[in-house]
Amino acid sequence: MSNHALLKDSALFTPLQLGSVALSNRIVMAPMTRARSSQPGNIPNQMMADYYAQRAAAGLIVTEATQISKQSQGYSFTPGIHTQEQIDGWKLVTNAVHKTGGRIFVQLWHVGRVSHPVFHDGAAPVAPSAIQPRGTQVWIVGDDGVGRMVDTPMPRALTVDEIGGIVGDFRQAAANAMAAGFDGIELHGGNGYLIDQFLRTVSNHRTDQYGGSVDNRVRFLREVVAAVSEEIGAHRVGVRLAPYITFKDMADPAIVDTILHAAAELEKQNVAYIHLSEADWDDAPTIPEDFRHRLRAAYSGRIIVAGRYDKERAGKILSDGLADLVAFGRPFVANPDLPKRLQENLALADLDGASLFGGDRRGYTDYSPA
Asked: What mean pLDDT do residues 224-234 have?
């Protein structure tokens, strides 16, 4: 059999059961911030519904990261799911995706210290500990309508009571996601945001029950997963983790062991999947094969991988049994029919990088299918 035929018959294009959701293939549209929500109010809109519906041939869509509360925002124009207007806006999206036969999870986040006082009525962002992330910026649209990257300031440390309140915000956001018609949720536990901040020694210097030992650092993640699972069922819950991504001042020598401990906890909690976020820039660190095997040993559920995958590399990691689904990010921007292009070995279009964040339909819904 030719290599061409093998690629066309890749496991990428076979159905898969993910929790209670039947997927038509193993291609995932990765979460990507696009900052197109309507203002004021960070409200999802018809343009976003069109964008996701165009890409609903993916076995699963995971939306852009979405605020669970006003406090959780760190970038301009990112959508929320904590007001009725936002829930109603997301209904446009889920209805459009489901109408075309797609499946969609919403990614929930709290950015923690990766934020700016402009989003908090002049107050400091919150974090596990008062540690300012070096070399970290957020995208803010000013009164002139121009988006700029701005340095993040010193955050303030959360109290134990406040941590419990944020766990409650995640629970309510999960309930809101069900009201909005989503098939499930993904907790953003990577890339330097709040859950990740609790996991890492470099951003969490606490000595109470949320810091110190590995088990204490995992506690916040464990409590959030328990809360949202109780609300909507663990079979509708995924968790994104990013052990080898170190930007936002998150390089931590202890993180691999912490992530594996977290994976063992997620095994006990019986979540639908772990989504392994891998760096996707040219000189990014490569995840060691040893880690992939250790992760698979710690967690027997579905594993999604994302980062610099092409069709051949995706097929190999599936056939090796080290992942069950493969997520594609930027290729989905310029190729709304990406699954078809991959299966039929068609050329991929290039994206317009200048239109990634903010703006109108240009560089968003105007890419043509093959």
From this structure: 98
Average pLDDT value over all residues in the chain? 95
Complete DSSP assignment for 133-170: PTT-EEEEE-TTS-EEEEE----EEPPHHHHHHHHHHH
CA separation for the pair 70, 14 (Å, rounded):
40
Condensed to tens digits (0 to 9), the pLDDT of residues 305-317 reads 999 899 999 999 9
Task: Tell me whether the omega of the peptide bond preceding residue 288 falls within 30 degrees of 0, making it cis.
Answer: no
Euclidean distance between CA atoms 331 and 263, whole angstroms: 28
Task: Quote the pLDDT of residue 2.
Answer: 38
How confident is the model over 250-299, as pLDDT tens digits? 999 999 999 999 999 999 999 999 999 997 766 667 899 999 999 999 99
pLDDT of residue 194: 98
The pair phi, psi for residue 238, each rounded to 5°, is -115, 160
Which pTM was predicted? Answer: 0.96
Q: How far is Cα 172 from Cα 194, in angstroms, rounded to an integer?
A: 17
The two structure tokens encoding residue 214: 């590995």
Cis peptide upstream of residue 339 (ω within 30 degrees of 0): no
Report the run of H or E that residue 297 belongs to, with start and end.
helix 289-298
User: Percent of the chain at pLDDT above 70?
Assistant: 96
Least Cα distance to 27 among 365, 336, 284 occurs for 336
Residue 193 designated active-site:
yes
Pair 89, 44: CB distance under 8 Å: yes
Q: Are 275 and 304 within 8 A, CB to CB?
A: yes
In the three-class reduction of DSSP (H, G, I as helix; E, B as strand; rest coil), residue 339 is classed as helix
At 281, list the tokens: 């820039």
Catalytically annotated residue among 51, 52, 75, 193: 193
Q: Tokens 């997927």 map to which residue? A: 23
273: left (phi over 0), alpha (psi -120 to 50) or beta: beta
The conformational region for residue 345 under phi > 0 = left, psi -120 to 50 = alpha, else beta, is left
Give the SS3 label for residue 61.
Answer: strand
Residue type for position 346 = L
Q: What is the pLDDT of residue 279?
A: 76
Q: How many CB atoms lie within 10 A of CB 142?
A: 11
C-beta of residue 260 within 8 angstroms of C-beta of residue 127: no
